[in-house]
Amino acid sequence: MNWNESANLSKFVWINGQMIEWDSAYISVLTHSLHYAGAVFEGERAYEGKIFKSEEHTKRLLNSAKLMNLDINYSEDEINKAKELVLSKNNLKNAYIRPLIWRGAESIGVFNNNISVNLLVLAQESNPEFQSGLRVILSPWRKIPENAIPIQAKSSAHYANIILSKKFADDKNYDDALLLDQFDNIAECSTSNIFFGCDGELVTPIADRFLSGITRNTVIAMARNIGIKVTEKRLSLGDIAEYDLCFQTGTAAEIKGIGSIDIEDKKFHFTNRKMLSILQSEYAKIVGKKL
Ligand code: PMP
């Protein structure tokens, strides 16, 4: 598959201040972040031409860069403008947007303070429908401990662990994997946060051992706003049986209903779809998604 196909025919990528045609947007084989997982990035969505929480995503991107010691030369404002430019230049209204900061190709050494720090912004058309009924399996891989790599950095360094989990689920014909933290508490799904519900209330794990998602925080505020109690607490696998609702949240996932979670020889089913569809339609209103 060439890049154009994978990007739904988006034509231009913004790289270090220049708009470059997709077919010419190559980087060196010596790219440091390719060898040593040193990139940080964002995943954002535009709905009907407006990027949802664009400023918040840019702030998180710059915070990830800071946490991972990537000294980037672009301001918040410049990054916000670059994202808008990529959308307009590619004529995109409903899109997934990926800003990425990476170390350049000046040295093959693991550490060299003089390696360049670069920024690209790409986007692809994307306008998915809400999904539900996902089949999820417990991953044999734990989240990387928060004292190993800064956990609130959306860094490519975390994604090796995530890809291993996703591949494990895919090999077994599941839609996604559930990961535990190093203390065996429920953390999150591969690239989304997780919520459980019963009796009109929601619970979600405390976001100090995994990425505290912008969607997660939006959904917590949104649910509280419409009178749904939301509790953040440690959850173990033994707690799952108490709930009849489960869903994941993320910029790409939006709000996706989970139909079942398989844990070794036990299968937990989640059949409550009523609150799920209320939350999905509230979320659509907030982000400006056309249903
Ligand atoms: N956890 C991980 C590991 C992720 O990759 C994502 C997607 N960015 C999320 C959670 C959800 O974060 P957000 O709602 O900010 O997209």
Description:
The chain is an alpha+beta fold and 291 residues long. It has helices at residues 3-6, 32-36, 54-67, 76-89, 159-171, 214-225, 274-287; strands at 12-15, 18-21, 40-41, 44-47, 50-51, 95-103, 117-125, 134-138, 176-180, 186-189, 193-198, 201-204, 229-232, 245-250, 254-263, 266-269. Strands 8, 9, 10, 11, 12, 13, 14, 15 and 16 form a nine-stranded mixed β-sheet that branches. Strands 1, 2, 3, 4, 5, 6 and 7 form a seven-stranded antiparallel β-sheet that branches. Helix 3 (54-67) crosses helix 4 and helix 6 (214-225) packs across helix 7 (274-287). It starts with a helix and ends with a helix. The model has no long low-confidence stretch (mean pLDDT 96). 4'-deoxy-4'-aminopyridoxal-5'-phosphate binds at residues 43, 162, 188, 191-193, 210-211, 213-216, 249-251.
